[in-house]
Every structure is written in C-alpha cells, then in structure tokens.
Design goal:
The complex is a heterodimer. Chain A is mostly beta strands. Chain A has no helices and 22 strands. In chain A, the strands form 4 sheets. An 8-stranded mixed β-sheet of chain A has the order 2-5-8-11-16-19-21-22, with no helix packed on it. In chain A, strands 1-4-7-10-15-18 form a 6-stranded parallel β-sheet, with no helix packed on it. A 6-stranded parallel β-sheet of chain A has the order 3-6-9-12-17-20, with no helix packed on it. Chain B is built from no helices and 20 strands. Chain B is mainly β. Chain B has a 7-stranded mixed β-sheet with strand order 1-3-6-9-12-15-18, with no helix packed on it. The relative contact order of chain B is 0.12. Classes of the chains: A mainly beta, B mainly beta. Chains A and B meet through loops of A and strand 17 of B.
Chain lengths: 165, 165
C-alpha cells in the first residue's frame, strides 16, 4: 500500500512514483500531494525519527526527504522538483523546521538544523545552511538571506528570485 | 522536425525517454539530439506556449524544459546533464491558490554551452557564444561571449570561441 506505515489525513495523494520508508512516525496532513514527473520521490524516516507535513503542501517529483530525528514542514508549502531536505549528514543530526506557506524552488537543498520561517522563499539551486527568518528569501550556495520586499518584481509579484538588485 | 499539439506522454517521433507533455507548440530544428542514455528528458509545453529548439542542439539526460509562454534555444547549443529551463512558476493551482505570476520569455542564443545542473529562470537571456558553468542559476540578461558562473549568476570571464556568423 502506498504510504504504508504513515498516519495521513484525507485526500493524500501521490500521482507519480514515490518510495516510502516509514520506520518512525510519519504524519501527512490533509491533501498533501506528490505530483508526477521524470523522477520518483522518496520519503525516508528512520527508527525514532519523525516527518510531519502540514495540510495542502504540494511536492513535485524527484524530492528526497530523509529524517533520522525530525523534519517538520508547515501547511500550504510548495516544493519544486529535485529538492533535498534532510536532518542528518555524516557527522551531525539536527532537526529541520519549515514554516507555513514556504516555497522551495527547483533543486534547492535544505541542510540539517535549518529553520525556515513562514512565508519565506528558497531560490532555485540554493543550499540553505543557516536559518531563514519569516518573510525572507535565501539565495545562493551557501545561501545568503535577504528580506523579500527587496526582491519585488515591478509587476508586483516577486520573481523566481535570483536577481540581486 | 515539428511536433504540434504534443499531448501524449511520449510522442511517437521522439525516442523513448523523452517525455513530452502539454498542448503547446514544440518546434525542433534538424539534427537535435536528445541523449537519454543516463536519464529521461522532460519537455513540457503548456497550451498557448511554445518551445523552439534550433538546429544541432544537444540535450543531455535529466534535462527538463518547461514553458508557459516562450522558450527559445539557438542553434548548436549544448546542454549538460540535469539542466532546468523554466519560463514561469509552476505552482500547483489548488485550494485557495489559483493565480500564478505572469511568465516571461527565456532565450538561449546560438553556440551557447550550458554546463550540468544549470538552472535558467524566467527572464534569463544567455547571448550567443557564452558558456554557463555548472550549477549556475541565471535569471537576467547577459552580454554575448561571456563565461557565467555562480548563484545568482555573475560574469566570470570571456570566451574565445569562434562564433558562426
């Protein structure tokens, strides 16, 4: 069964391939979606780890979420293809917290111990190694953090956001 | 080669592993190579959008080209593995989220060399004879004959390449 071992809300769906290893506590909110694409996604939670994903968060394809202790993702987040979120590497384990309405653009990596505030944006291809306060944008490798107002597009919406003005 | 209304998952005139979807216009020049030996390639053209790929373009595996409005790739351009070219935001439209920011054109001119893992975002314009280093994130216009690198992209040097007239 898809999402075997996960506790999940209503209308949780995976439209493409997804590899789920839920040894620990995996909780998916209502209407969490993994969409179809070129690559499969993976959701791996080790013993004694937890992965919590809030309602209406949408994930594209090729996403890797690997938890050894704790990864928490808020509600209504948008996660683009080939994003990697993990709470451990070779020599440390530190929880990752992602707030509500966060948009993580294509190919970004979220490193262990990072907290991303609500309404923030992670630009495409960024590697986030430090905390991002609410309403900020993280750009580059390693990511630098700027307030989102500085990035506003003349037409009102912020761009996919790798322009430093 | 011209593929019109490519709504099928795999178009019969493209090799297996090239994943064409959407109802837009995809125009391919002669001698375009899709190298799917190591990973699939995705070409997504939404309704009313167009993707124009020039003569002799080489596209390596894992590359994804997605258009909501217009993407143009010039002749003899070479693209490395896992490149991503998008001209708009591909948010899922779901729940109370039903507006996307307007897309903008992406142009890659002739004789450009895109390295592996490059990301070209809306409004990117790589002029002729340029080289884009691996992992670069481009979202604005650069002059011809430059070497681009970094995230966000900056000019790292100039190419000595002979450019076709």
């Amino acid at each position: 069964m898809l999402f075997h071992g996960c506790s999940r809300g209503t209308h949780v769906s995976a439209l493409g391939r997804i590899h789920v290893v839920a040894r620990g506590d995996v909780r998916l909110g209502d209407r969490v979606t993994f969409t179809q694409g070129m690559f499969g996604s993976e959701l791996v939670c080790d013993w004694a780890g937890e992965i919590v994903i809030g309602a209406r968060s949408a994930f594209a394809s090729g996403i890797s979420i690997r938890a050894r202790r704790s990864i928490r993702i808020g509600e209504r987040c948008l996660v683009a293809p080939l994003v990697s979120i993990r709470d451990h590497d070779a020599d440390r384990v530190a929880p990752v917290v992602i707030g509500d309405d966060v948009w993580i653009a294509h190919g970004a990596s979220i490193e262990p111990g990072v907290t991303i505030g609500s309404g923030s944006v992670v630009a495409a291809g960024s590697v986030v190694t430090s905390d991002v306060p609410p309403g900020h944008i993280a750009i580059g490798n390693p990511a630098s953090v700027l307030p989102i107002q500085a990035m506003h597009h003349p037409q009102g919406e912020h761009s996919l956001a790798v322009e430093r003005t | 080669m011209r593929v019109f209304g490519a709504s099928s998952v795999r178009h019969p005139r493209l090799p297996a592993g090239v994943w064409v979807h959407g109802d837009g216009l995809l125009r391919l020049g002669s001698g375009v190579v899709f190298d799917v030996s190591m990973a699939p390639i995705e070409v997504h053209v939404e309704r009313t959008a167009e993707i124009v790929i020039g003569d002799g373009v080489y596209v390596a595996g894992g590359t994804s080209i997605e258009a909501q409005y217009s993407i143009r790739i010039g002749a003899r351009t070479r693209m490395g593995v896992f490149c991503k070219i998008i001209d708009g935001h591909f948010h899922m439209l779901e729940g109370d989220r039903h507006v996307r920011p307007p897309p903008s054109t992406v142009v890659v001119e002739d004789d450009v060399d895109l390295g592996p893992h490059c990301i070209l975002l809306p409004r990117a314009h790589v002029a002729r004879g340029s080289t884009v280093r691996a992992g670069t994130v481009v979202s604005r216009r650069f002059p011809p004959g430059v070497v681009l690198g970094g995230s966000p992209a900056g000019v790292c040097g100039h190419t000595e390449r002979v450019v076709h007239p």
